[in-house]
Structures are given as C-alpha cells and as structure tokens.
Specification:
alpha/beta; 19-stranded parallel sheet; seven-stranded antiparallel sheet; elongated
C-alpha cells in the first residue's frame, strides 16, 4: 500500500503550471523581439535603399551639372573660334554691326551639321546659334549640347551660351563679352600671292633677299586644276595652294632650294587654309593728293589724275608723295620714272570695280623708287604725318599693273587687281606682290622678283585684314540659362 498521500502528488501541479506559464511568457517575448528586429532591419533596409537611391540621384545630378558646364564651356570655345575667323571691315559702323556679324557667321556655318538645319540670322536684335529653339550637339555619346545667343552692346558683342545633356535636365549658362581686334595678315608671309592662278615662264626668278623662304608663292584659286604653274627658273621658297583637289606643275625649275624632282614635293603644300586678302583703304593717302594733273606735268607732287585722262609719260617723270589715279584711267610710264611716295587707286567708298581694260598702270621704263618714309624734309611733298604711312608702294585693287622694265628697289608692297611682269622686269620688293582678283598673275621672260619683306611684323599703311572679335578680359560670368 502506497505511502504517498494525494496531497503529496498534487503538490507538484502548481510548479508545473508555473513553468508552463514562464515558458509561454518567454516565447511571447521572443516573438516580440523577433518582430522588433524585423521592423528594425526593414527600417534599415528602407533607409539604405533610400540613401542609395538618393546618392545615385545626387551622382546623376552632379554628373549632369558637370556635363552641362562642360557643354557650356565647349560651346563658348566654339563661338570664340568662329569669332576669330571673321573679317569685318575696320570702319564697320555700330548700326549694321549685328547684321554684318550674322553674314560672316552664316558664311562660316550655314549648311554645316553645327547648325542642325538652321541658318544664321538676326531675330529680334539677336543672333541664335543654331536657331532660336534648337541645340547643337557636342558629343552624341554623352548627349551634351549647347545653344548660344549673341547680342550687341555698342561695338561689343555679348555671347550667352547654355550647356546641357540629354541624361539630365540640368543646364548651365555662361556669358562673355567680345571686343574687336585686327586680324593678322598671314598673306604677308608669302612673297607672291594671288586670288587667281600664278604662272612663271622663261628665266623668271622669285627669290628671298636674305631668307630664301621669303620667295614663296601662294594661290587661292579654287577653279583651276593647276593653280600654280612654274616653268620659270626658280622659286626659292615653298609653293602653297588652297584648293585641296588641285595640283602644282613644276617643269625644270628649282623650288625650295632643290631641283631634285623627288625632293620638290616636300616644298609643295596643297589644301592650306585660305589666308585673308587685304582690305585696301587708300583714303589715308588720297587726302594728301590735292593737286589736279594737267597735261605736260613732269613733276607730280601730291597729284590726282582725274578720270578718263589716260596720260602717257614718255620722258622722265618724278612722283613726290601721293599719286592718286582715279578710275577709269590708263596710265603709261615709258621713260625713266622716279618715285618718292606711293601710287594709289580710289578709296573703297567709291565702289570702283576691277576693270583690266580701262584701268591700267603700265611701267615700260625703269623705275627708281624710294619709300615715302624716307622722303627728305626738303621734298615739296613732305608732311610729317604722310611720311609715317610706310610699307606700301602701290595700292590699286581696281587696276591691272604691268611691269616690263627694271624697277630697282620698291619700298613697299605691290597690291593690284592683277599683276603682270614680262621682259626684263625685275627688282627688289620691300613687301609682297599681291593679286587681288581671280585673274592670272604672270611672270615671263627674264622677270625677276627679289622679296625683302618684313612679313606680318609691319603692316603696310592703307592695308588691313579686317577685324575679328576676341574675349574681353574679366567678363566671364555664370548666368541663369535662357
């Protein structure tokens, strides 16, 4: 018989229930903790996702801003380059400046992919590149683009450029002012240059006086298959042509110091950039030519020859100061000619076209020329301001100039609509020989030119190469996109 009483058996029941209750409480606490951790990790995950998304968005915005800023800078450099190519008239009035700029930019940009189908024009006193509502693509891979607006402030141009990217809506705006500056006359680095073809024959020589490279030749002709034909004796410098599809013909001549046919091509340059031909303004000289020519004059001191006079100087003639030959006129010098000064045609304001038949300057005799800068004070044409106008011997773009005799040393550049030298014509030119039209420039017979120029270090008076626009220092600012 058991000695355990019912009271002893039932005494364990409360402890068991307490254990179950305690275990149940622990299980509930674990669930709560699990839920708390789940909420915590969920919150952390959402926060991490938000932070990552925000960082990615910030990164995209920063990249878009950098691309927009780079596009704006690239667009401004593009405009700066185009401004540097322009050749505006030096005396361009402010009233027509924006239209003149649009014409120049149109000549450079219209029809190119940069315009995206647009054309350069003035709209509401502004020029838009590529158009009022268009963009120019810089990098198709990145989608960078720019647009520009050009306005006028007196003689200054104000350019505002917006840059952007298709990868972001961020845009960047910058602005600069530009001022006029004279263009460099690269054409003065050539001894003989012409808008038309150039040909030599016989025993002709083109050479540099102290530097063989000064005896160089350039043709800007774009229609002839052979714009330069050298059948003469020598060209001491190099030969350059603008037409990339043309060629140079050399037959039995020395070019660049060599007669070796295998080495001559090293001194021939095809497809060179077209230099700016000079803008001639003879008004700086014509103001001094106040005495009209009369028949029988043999000493011409600051004289102008009226139209249709057509004088022939068969004996010796002396020219002091300025000789202004007004078109139309055929002037012939058959005897010895002594010149201490400059021969010029009409100012550009008279708008005289080139006429090789009715406008001629013919030198058949010997010419002794002295630069106007060396005019002695006892010369009746002496004027302190006039003698400062150095560097030019002839400025007559509407005339054909022909030389058949010796011209000694000419103290300045010879600039005419067309130039021809034949017979024993020859001498030293302290400058360049420039043909201003697409008519042939020819040297035949025993013609010989020695070039003693100063290149671009000394611009001849009455000659300029137009104005371009350069940035005005200190005007770069960031602006709101337009």
């Amino acid at each position: 018989m058991s000695t355990h009483s019912p009271n002893n058996v039932s005494s364990f029941a409360p402890a068991s229930r307490r254990s179950r209750r305690l275990l149940s409480r622990r299980r509930g606490l674990s669930s709560v903790l699990a839920m708390l951790y789940l909420v915590l990790f969920s919150t952390l995950a959402i926060g991490f996702y938000s932070a990552t998304t925000m960082s990615a968005q910030i990164s995209r915005n920063e990249r878009g801003l950098q691309q927009a800023e780079s596009a704006a800078d690239g667009g401004m450099q593009f405009i700066r380059y185009q401004f540097g190519l322009m050749a505006l008239l030096p005396n361009q009035p402010p009233a027509g400046l924006l239209a003149a700029v649009a014409q120049q930019l149109g000549n450079q940009l219209n029809g190119t992919s940069n315009m995206n189908g647009g054309t350069v024009q003035v709209v509401n006193n502004a020029i838009y590149i590529p158009s009022q509502n268009g963009w120019t693509t810089l990098d198709p891979n990145l989608g960078t683009k720019f647009k520009a607006i050009i306005t006028q402030s007196g003689q200054f141009l104000v350019c505002t450029v917006d840059g952007g990217s298709t990868a972001a809506t961020v845009q960047k705006g910058i602005q600069m002012q530009y001022q006029q500056a004279p263009k460099a006359g690269a054409i003065l680095d050539y001894g003989v240059a012409s808008e038309g073809t150039i040909s030599t024959g016989g025993a002709t020589v083109i050479q540099g006086l102290t530097d063989p490279t000064k005896g160089s030749v350039l043709s800007a002709d774009m229609s002839s298959a052979t714009p330069v034909v050298i059948d003469g004796k020598e060209v001491s410098g190099d030969i350059s042509i603008v037409n990339p599809s043309a060629s140079v013909s050399v037959s039995g001549a020395s070019v660049g110091g060599t007669s070796d046919p295998t080495k001559i091509p090293q001194h021939i340059h095809i497809g060179v950039p077209a230099p700016t031909f000079p803008i001639v303004d003879t008004s700086v000289f014509t103001q001094y030519a106040t005495t009209p020519y009369t028949n029988g004059m043999s000493t011409l001191t600051n004289v102008y020859i009226p139209p249709n006079t057509n004088p022939k100087f068969t004996g010796g003639v002396t020219i002091n100061g300025v000789l202004w030959v007004q078109a139309p006129n055929v002037v012939t010098f058959k005897g010895n000619c002594t010149i201490c000064g400059v021969i010029v045609g009409d100012p550009p304001a008279m708008n005289i076209p080139f006429d090789p038949v009715n406008n001629q300057l013919n030198f058949a005799g010997n010419v002794q020329a002295t630069p106007i800068s060396q005019m002695p004070t006892n010369n009746p044409a002496y004027n302190a301001n006039l003698v400062q106008l150095s560097g030019s011997f002839m400025l007559a773009p509407e005339f054909k100039a022909s030389f058949t005799g010796n011209f000694g040393t000419v103290g300045g550049s010879i600039v005419a609509g067309q130039v021809s030298m034949t017979g024993n014509a020859g001498g030293t030119v302290d400058g360049s020989v420039i043909g201003m039209t697409d008519n042939p420039l020819t040297l035949n017979g025993n013609a010989s030119i020695t070039i003693s120029s100063t290149g671009t270090s000394n611009y001849p008076s009455g000659m300029s190469f137009g104005n371009m626009y350069t940035p005005l220092p200190g005007t770069y600012i960031e602006v709101a996109p337009w």
